[in-house]
Structures are given as C-alpha cells and as structure tokens.
From TrEMBL:
A Pfam family hit: p450
Name assigned to this protein: Cytochrome P450
Keyword terms, alphabetized: Heme, Iron, Metal-binding, Monooxygenase, Oxidoreductase
Family membership noted in the UniProt record: Belongs to the cytochrome P450 family.
Annotated GO MF terms: heme binding; iron ion binding; monooxygenase activity; oxidoreductase activity, acting on paired donors, with incorporation or reduction of molecular oxygen
Keyword Iron in annotation: yes
PROSITE patterns: CYTOCHROME_P450
Gene3D superfamilies for this protein: Cytochrome P450
Length: 416
C-alpha cells in the first residue's frame, strides 16, 4: 500500500513548537508519514516503533555511517552487532555499574552540592543552564576519567558533535563547525589515551585502552569513538530529564507534595517523566527490505525515524496516555529502566540504552538532594516555557524560585 501524502510536515515551525499536539493525528491518520524534504519515513505507533527497533535484521543502523560516523571519528556501539557489540558493550557498561557506580554516586552528590551552593542564598536559578547542563557534562567526564575542570571546553565541542547528529538541515558552514569540534575533541583525547595506555587507572578510558577484542587491543580511533559515544549519549538526555521532572512536578503540586513526603516515589516520577516527555524523540534506522505497516509500505533502503514521543503516548500502549501520573499502574517502575520497559524512551532491542540504570541513579540522587534544598520551589514569575529540538528535546531554560537559605541555615543533609 502506498503511503498517503499530506501537507503536514514534522519539519514545520508549528511541529517544532509543540510536537505533542500532532502525535494523535499522526498515529491515527498517517502512522507512516513520509517527509519528502529529507526523503524519510516517520513512524508514530507504539507497535510499529517497537517492531522496527527489535527487528535489527530488517532495520539496520546503517544510517549512522552518514548521520554520526563523520563526527564520532569511528564506529559507535549502535553500529555494531554480534560478538563485537556484546564484548564492547560489556566493557562500557562495567564503567558505570557495580563498585564503579557507588563511587560515582558519591562524586555526583559532591559535584551537585558544589554547583547548587551559590544559588541557595539567592533563592533562584535556571535549573537547565545554571545546574543541569554543567552537572550532566561533569558527571560524564567523571565516569570517563577525564578532567572535570575542562567541562566548558568539552561541552562546546560536544555541542557541535550533537548538532551534527541531530540536525535535519545542516548548512555547509555549520557542518564545518561540527567537524572542527570533533577534530578538536579528538586532539584533546589522544594524549589522554596515550597516558592511560602507559598508566591505567580504574576509569572508563583506561578500561577501553586495556580491553581486547578477539585477542587484539583497540586502536586509538576505536577508543576515541567509544569515548565520543558515551559522552554524547550520556550528557545530552540527562539534564533534559532532570529539568522535565521538575517541570512536571511543579505543574502538579499534589504529585510534588507526594514525592516530597515519600522520596521513594522519585523512581516512578522519573520513569513517568521519561514516558511522558522522552528527551530522545527520534531514533533512526534503515529499512533493509520493503516492509508493510498498517499505514503503508516503507521501501527497501529508506531512512525510518521512530517517533519515541508519539509511541509513548499511544493509547494502545498506555491508558490515558496524555496525562502525567506517577502512580500509573501500566508503567512499572523497576522494569522501566530495563529491557522489559513498556515505554520506549531508552529504545528497545539490541541497542537499548546501556546507561539506563545509571541515568536513573544519577537523576534520583540529584533530585533527592535538590527537593529538600528547594523549599517552596516554583516557576519564576512570567515564565515563558519553551522546549527545543526535534531529535533530542528539552526545555531551553527552567527559571525557578524558592525560599532562600539564610546564613547559618542547614538544608544539606550530613551525607554531603
Ligand atoms: C535519561 C537518560 C537517557 C536516555 C533517555 C537515553 C536514551 C537512549 C536511547 C533511546 C538509545 C537507543 C539508541 C538506538 O537504538 O539507536 C540509547 C543508547 C545508548 N545509550 Fe542512552 N540514554 C540515556 C542515558 C545514558 C547514559 C547515562 C549513558 C552512559 C553512561 C548512555 C549510553 C548509551 C549508549 C552507549 C548507547 C548505545 C547502546 C548500543 O548501541 O548498544 N545513555 N540511549
């Protein structure tokens, strides 16, 4: 069946301003939406998105050769399959699970306490730009074993790399800028890789340098690409999730009060935030063969974008999907951060997010610390809330006010 052509475009300003308004019409009227300007198909139903992400033989990650590889300096995990993928994924995951995780949680707490301190007496801050973004980059640098003090520079390079991967219409000038960012980050990393090969530590860069696959160590290029991989994958969605969590709770004072009373509910609040407003909105694949869906056929060789935000709001998957409810029975908190998750915010199948449990630990730790500190937290007066991003999406800023901490007053717990 041919795909129905509509004048609606996911590349329009209206869609960019509020994609959530369009998800139900897309699922109902154009579940296989064709976008001629970029010759790509957009799938919005939960069932279809899940099918594409789990059938990795029919839908490959070959699009990443063009979308990611030029700026990643080599192949990333999402481009690998079979024994190579299993082995390298295992090495990466060891960098932020088990004993490494406990150490990192302590570092996250100390780091977050340092970042928030100057704002406490002022009684206001922008949760995205003053706190969430620096924290997400610094935490990722800690995991990798890179210098936290270089975070501004790394964040700037990271921004260029992420722009390349997530843009739908990159001008030649922006493309050059993105490539420069990638080259400079690579030049920054090469001496570090050389040093870790000679003097390994417990950090992820050292583990990657020491790892062997099929009896052969990884080249500098292989290691660099995996460092880029973790840097981009971990930092980009974490600050967005934290800001969205606070936005949704502040907008629903009853649920905020419940989480304040019982911080054990934070896991559910984070899972529901991820379902309701996933920071990774699009996951690309290439169709290996002609594939029929209810709304039409995707031809072999076509680029397909899985619309995670639309799939998570599909009434076939969740009851009353457009309401934010930390108590919803159809989510399942524990499974929401595993391969059994019903929401698709971490992807699903072979390439499901390797950092899901770490992301939960990171955001839960930080939110549990912030809530008692931000007494009477509310949006700043005159807030003009705006989200940005088609591929990854989150608040541009989130200015908050709260009761200032007076000199001598302690709201930080003894563990800090
Ligand atoms: C809320 C936070 C996060 C979200 C929403 C998220 C989302 C995702 C998604 C949707 C994918 C699948 C991509 C695909 O199928 O092509 C993915 C993969 C991945 N994520 Fe995450 N992620 C998060 C945090 C993290 C963190 C903290 C790390 C590392 C510390 C991480 C590392 C990775 C890696 C390495 C992959 C590729 C896995 C593979 O191809 O086998 N992510 N993530």
């Amino acid at each position: 069946m041919p795909v129905a052509r509509t004048r609606f475009s996911v590349l329009s300003e209206d869609f960019a301003a509020d994609p959530y308004r369009y998800f139900a019409p897309l699922r109902n009227q154009a579940p296989v939406h064709y976008e001629p300007a970029i010759d790509s198909y957009f799938l919005s139903r939960h069932e279809d998105v899940k099918r594409v992400l789990t059938d990795h033989e029919a839908f490959t990650t070959e699009t990443l050769q063009v979308r990611a590889e030029p700026v990643m300096r080599g192949r990333v995990l999402a481009q690998m399959t079979g024994a190579e993928h299993t082995a390298k994924r295992k090495i990466v995951v060891r960098g932020f699970t088990g004993p490494a995780l406990q150490e990192q949680i302590r570092a996250i707490r100390a780091n977050a306490a340092e970042l928030i301190a100057p704002f406490l007496t002022r009684g206001r801050m922008d949760l995205v730009n003053d706190f969430g973004k620096p924290l997400a980059v610094q935490v990722t640098l800690d995991v990798l074993g890179l210098e936290r003090r270089d975070w501004r520079q790394v964040a700037a390079w990271h921004g260029g790399i992420a722009e390349f991967i997530t843009s739908m219409d990159l001008t030649p000038e922006r493309r050059r800028h993105c490539m420069d960012c990638a080259e400079q980050l690579e030049a920054y990393l090469l001496p570090v890789i050389e040093q870790r090969r000679r003097h390994p530590g417990e950090d992820l860069v050292s583990r990657l340098c020491a790892a062997e696959f099929d009896g052969i160590g990884m080249s500098d290029r292989d290691v660099t690409a995996l460092i880029f991989n973790v840097l981009v994958a971990a930092a980009e969605p974490a600050d967005k999730t934290l800001a969205l969590l606070f936005k949704h709770l502040i907008d629903r004072p009853e649920q905020l009060a419940q989480v304040r009373r019982d911080p054990d509910l934070l896991g559910a609040a984070i899972a529901e935030t991820l379902r309701f407003t996933p920071p990774v909105q699009l996951v690309p694949r290439r169709a290996g063969q002609d594939t029929a869906f209810a709304g039409g056929t995707v031809p072999a060789g076509a680029t397909v974008f899985c619309m995670i935000g639309a799939a998570n709001r599909d009434p076939a998957a969740f009851t009353d999907p457009d309401s934010f409810d930390i108590h919803r029975p159809d989510l399942g908190v524990a499974r929401s951060f595993t391969a059994a998750a019903q929401h698709l915010s971490f992807g699903t199948g072979l390439h499901q997010c390797v950092g899901a449990a770490f992301a939960r630990a990171e955001i839960e730790t930080v939110a549990a610390m912030l809530l008692p500190l931000l007494d009477q937290v509310r949006h700043s007066p005159g807030l003009r809330y705006q989200e940005a991003g088609l591929y990854t999406r989150g608040p541009v800023s989130l200015p908050l006010e709260f009761t200032p901490v007076r000199a001598g007053e302690r709201r930080l717990g003894p563990t800090l």
